[in-house]
Design brief:
Rossmann fold; ubiquitin-protein transferase activity; 375 residues; ATP hydrolysis activity
Length: 375
């Protein structure tokens, strides 16, 4: 037993808090010192990615809860698992108001299939079902032995339904993603059943990626800081990154962009990565924001270059955008989100012309996931 092993055990079993390092130093400092031949041991934060990998590598570990403030963590966890040649099943709780008892039974059936097949499972926003899985998460198993192997079974129940002998594959792993805004209201017995780690997208960035985020953040600061401010209206105080880039989030946009671009352009150098990131940001800029950026502290030559790029990116109208989209990509299999001020009543037929057939749906009138599956 080494102090490093003890620290790993503490980080895995008492993680998920913001001041984890200070708490472990306060309550377990003497223990670490004892395992270090009574010499001082500096307790440093273990990277979250390393803690998650340690959990996944440990066949006897408790299941894992990842606490985060963003749904994008689900995508990052999926990337982590697929990097390990695992194929996770992701089940997001329905946000539709009419999804009630039948919906939860169908979700429970999907979960049980994953448990039996040994497929990794990522769950979020399924509070109604969590209580049905306590025996599974406790690893409270019925053990059936024969000469060749050992099989494990557990009990799962929801309402009137009960399966007292659900087979549990030895390869099964479950990751529950908890929104940190719901953490204070979470049931303590639920929290106690998991190894817990607090995670953000920054935790998955390496040093090079973090440096690129800093460069990109500096660029976004420059392009949104006006040098010719109106002293009467305080214009310089009202032009922000959120004004220029539609949907901008200070905690995620740049980080996720750097992560995505670097992972998909492994041979690109730093300048090429930054250029691709800037192009992606300009693509979600607002037209009035690009005009206002002419007054920014960014060098005028660069502002003019990005202004030229923007107004050649097909922002004029929906029809113009589809001309560019289907000219560059195979129209099959494309997932595209378009930020627009147009209403649902826009004439999509004239915009799409002869490209493909389409259906228009107003999501506000959809009340269940079943309705979506029938579209």
């Amino acid at each position: 037993m080494t102090p490093g092993n003890v620290q790993m055990a503490l980080a895995r079993n008492f993680g998920g808090t913001e001041n984890h390092v200070n708490l472990c130093n306060q309550y377990f400092g003497n223990v670490l010192k004892m395992f270090n031949n009574h010499k001082p041991w500096i307790y440093e934060q273990i990277p979250v990615g390393q803690l998650i990998d340690s959990n996944l590598n440990d066949s006897d570990a408790r299941h894992l809860m990842v606490i985060s403030k963003s749904d994008s963590i689900v995508n990052l966890l999926t990337y982590q698992l697929r990097r390990r040649d695992l194929d996770p099943v992701i089940i997001l709780g329905s946000q539709f108001p009419d999804d009630q008892e039948d919906y939860y039974y169908s979700v429970l059936r999907r979960i049980m299939m994953c448990v039996e097949a040994g497929r990794p499972l990522i769950l979020t926003d399924l509070e109604t079902i969590y209580g049905s899985l306590y025996d599974l998460w406790d690893q409270n198993y019925i053990v059936v032995r024969n000469k060749d192997n050992v099989k494990y079974f557990t009990r799962v129940a929801l309402g009137a339904y009960s399966n007292p002998m659900l087979y549990v594959s030895p390869n099964f792993k479950c990751i529950l993603v908890m929104d940190e805004t719901k953490l204070a209201l979470a049931n303590p017995p639920l929290l106690n059943r998991f190894e817990k780690q607090r995670m953000s997208i920054n935790d998955l960035l390496d040093d090079k990626q973090k440096l690129l985020v800093e460069y990109l953040d500096n660029w976004t600061n420059q392009i949104t800081t006006l040098v010719k401010a109106n002293s009467v209206t305080g214009l310089h105080n009202r032009f922000t990154k959120e004004d220029l880039f539609i949907g901008f989030d200070k905690d995620e946009t740049l980080q996720s962009l750097i992560f995505h671009i670097t992972m998909n352009n492994l041979e690109a150098n730093d300048n090429e990565i930054l250029e691709k990131c800037k192009e992606s940001l300009i693509a979600i800029a607002s037209a009035d924001g690009i005009i206002r950026a002419e007054l920014s502290i960014l060098e005028q030559d660069e502002v003019d270059r990005w202004k030229h790029v923007y107004f050649n990116q097909h922002h004029n109208c929906l029809s113009n955008y589809f001309d560019a989209l289907f000219g560059l990509f195979d129209p099959e299999g494309q997932l595209v989100i378009i930020d627009t001020f147009s209403k649902i009543y826009t004439d999509f037929k004239s915009s799409l012309q002869d490209y493909l057939r389409y259906q228009a749906h107003n999501l506000s009138i959809i009340k269940t996931e079943v309705q979506i599956s029938k579209i």
